[in-house]
Amino acid sequence: MSLKHAIVHQLIRNTTTTALNLRDDELTVDDQLTHLMTQTKTAFYNRSSKQYGQFAEEAGTFKALAQQWQAGSVSFTTLTEQLMKQLQLDVEQQELDIDGHWFFAHETLESSENLWFFHLKHKDGLMLTQAMDLSGARLIDFAKLGFGGYVDLTAMAANEQKYLTVSFGFGDRSLQSALLNFVNFVDTINTAVDTERFLEIVKAYSETLPQEKGSNYRKKAVEYCTEQDKLGETVVADEIAVVLKDEVGTDGPQTLASYMEVTQPEAKREFIPNRASLKKFQRYTGKTKEVSISFSNEILGKNVNFDPASESLTITNLPSNLLKQLKSAIGEED
């Protein structure tokens, strides 16, 4: 990681208080700052729901300031100060409550240059001083990281379709509309649709394989996509075809990639995996107030059988603890 610039500001707005506290100069790049950046990025990447898109075509403050900063007409500090003033104006006009610090960072990586922004929230904690006395402390709560995201400046300069990624955090529901407007966000990619279409292709391809290998192939494909999601990486059809051919050993006349070329040539060869959609291909789940059911896709047609005519499930090989409870309930426990 190569941090070039970083700064923190504070915004508080509620029914009794409105305060914008702006830091005058950038943070020093040291181990503590690097740790903060790593923690916030990790929390962001671990989120299941992200939105991918770009700035709206009409001029907005965030977009305009980012372009001015890239052109060198405003400094990084001025960029972030003006963004915070716009955010303050937005939440005041809509009478929204917000509290916490906002962390802005500029990093340069081997393949991209990114402008990050995070809403940092806090929790009360305890610390021991050098004199070994207990003292109260306000700690950054990474488990409840607020709204955040980044602008891929390299992709934006290349006019790519996706260069702005955002995600909401704990307790952000009332702020969602205002924060999306604040960053001028427009959604350009539906990750759920892309993921589900790709996995349907995987399912169709696996049905051309022997049954045991086909079942294993579907399982490994979902596992691979899940791992890519955890790493914050895309899934590339050509790469997964090679990985799974080596791992599963299909030895068939077609790879997944060649199968896609023949049967679904218009399908995306690279996509961002959607965690919720992946789970649908791992487990069947459903619940009412009285019943909750969840089981692996692999046992459908084996230990679990579905009759569409009667809309009923037949389950065998029940878990031992469930069997014990059921037998006890009817007085037949051994």
Radius of gyration: 25 Å
Distance between the termini: 61 Å
Task: Give the topology string: H per helix, E per strand.
Answer: EEHEHHEEEEEHEHEHHEHHEHEEEEH
* Unreliable residue runs: none
Total count of domains: 3
Task: Tell me, rounded to a whole number, the average pLDDT.
Answer: 86
Strand content: 25-35%
What summary fits the major beta sheet? 8 strands, antiparallel
- The side-by-side strand order for the widest beta sheet comes to 2-1-4-5-8-9-3-10
Number of distinct beta strands: 16
* Content-based structural category: alpha+beta
Helix content: 25-40%
Tally of DSSP helical segments: 11
Keywords: Cytoplasm
Subcellular location: Cytoplasm, Nucleoid
Pfam families: NA37 (PF04245)
Family: Belongs to the YejK family.
Overview of the structural elements:
With 334 residues, the protein is an alpha+beta fold. The protein is 39% helix and 27% strand. The chain contains eleven helices and 16 strands. The protein has helices spanning 31-45, 61-71, 76-93, 153-157, 176-182, 191-206, 211-231, 237-248, 256-263, 275-280, 320-329, and strands spanning 3-13, 18-21, 51-55, 98-108, 113-120, 122-128, 134-140, 148-152, 164-167, 185-189, 235-236, 270-271, 283-287, 292-296, 304-307, 312-315. The strands form five sheets. The protein has an eight-stranded antiparallel beta sheet with strand order 2-1-4-5-8-9-3-10, sandwiched between helices. Strands 6-7 form a two-stranded antiparallel sheet. Helix 2 runs antiparallel to helix 3 (76-93). The longest helix has 21 residues, at 211-231. The protein is globular and about 70 Å long.
